[in-house]
Specification:
Porin, single chain, disordered N terminus, 49% strand, mainly beta
């Protein structure tokens, strides 16, 4: 817990320093590289982004595994983005299995950016107990939950509602985002809480060049996230905490590649996680479909 508290203090201090010393500038077009933390970005209206994230993990007594989700993110309106996730996992010496679906919605109350821009988030999850995505950490979730054999965990069905308050600030080429998370199993239990904090920066300002490997195509940062206990027992004690640097490479063809090695900071955490993501954005999906049908 000392490591977790120290990392949290360092990250919060960095946020304060950035906010005090930098002045707001125009938002950079490159996406922030976060895997867990959300910023205020919403998908452009009519655009569809298709992505896939794989996460190998092991250590601290956890059977090695690879979790995976495929996501379909659609800009329904200028203020509403909706997303479908399809999850599966493979655990070494056990099996591979489909673990469920998640349906996410993000709402931006104001179209203009502010010094701190809020976004409201709500997600419905229909998963089984074998899910190992670890995209958000809430309550007292820990490595023991991941060591239930697949053939037993798959029979545990979970219907959960998850909410977030997303706060995001763009300060020059920097982005600072904070998420407060509340989740509730609809079948039983209390509200569980968690958080995620991300700080990132585009490596260079965009100047309109058509390039692939130039610095303006890259963004880097760090995420700190973990559980905060539950209703009536909000605490860092006995929770899982993680820290993870992140790197994004935005190719000129609307494809992005991201990586993030992460480490558990407490005894309850998984030893390490390595997230790898690939996504591609299709602008104006309706127009693209019409053009496709015309050709056929």
């Amino acid at each position: 817990m000392v490591k977790a508290r120290l990392a949290l203090m360092v990250c919060v201090s960095a946020l304060g320093t950035l906010g005090a010393t930098a002045s707001a500038q125009e938002h950079e077009p490159i996406r922030v590289p976060y895997f867990v933390t959300y910023d205020d970005y919403l998908e452009e209206m009519g655009a569809l982004e298709i992505g896939n994230v794989s996460t190998p993990g092991q250590g601290n007594g956890v059977n090695s595994f690879v979790s995976n989700f495929t996501e379909f993110e659609y800009g329904a309106t200028k203020w509403w983005t909706t997303e479908l996730y399809i999850d599966w996992q493979h655990t070494r010496k056990e099996s591979s299995l489909f673990t469920g679906v998640r349906f996410e919605n993000r709402f931006r109350p104001w179209s203009a950016s502010h010094r701190i821009t809020p976004v409201l988030y709500v997600e419905y999850e229909h998963l089984n107990g074998a899910d190992k995505i670890l995209k958000e950490i809430v309550g007292f979730e820990g490595k023991e939950d991941l060591n239930v054999p697949n053939h037993d965990a798959r029979h545990e069905h979970e219907r959960e509602i998850e909410t977030k308050l997303i706060l995001s600030s763009d300060i020059g080429r920097w982005n600072v985002s904070e998420n407060l998370i509340g989740a509730k199993n609809l079948n039983q239990g209390r509200w569980e809480f968690g958080y995620a904090v991300g700080v990132s920066r585009a490596l260079a300002a965009t100047n309109g060049r058509q390039c692939t490997f130039c610095a303006e195509r890259f963004a880097a940062g760090v995420e700190l996230y973990g559980g905060l206990g539950e209703w009536g027992d909000v605490t860092l004690s006995g929770t899982s905490q993680y820290i993870a640097p992140v790197l994004l490479w935005a190719l000129p063809n609307d494809t992005s590649i991201s990586i993030s090695p992460g480490w558990g900071l407490t005894d309850q955490s998984v030893g390490w996680l390595f997230r790898i993501g690939v996504s591609h954005e299709i602008d104006d999906l309706g127009h693209q479909l019409k053009s496709l049908f015309r050709r056929h």
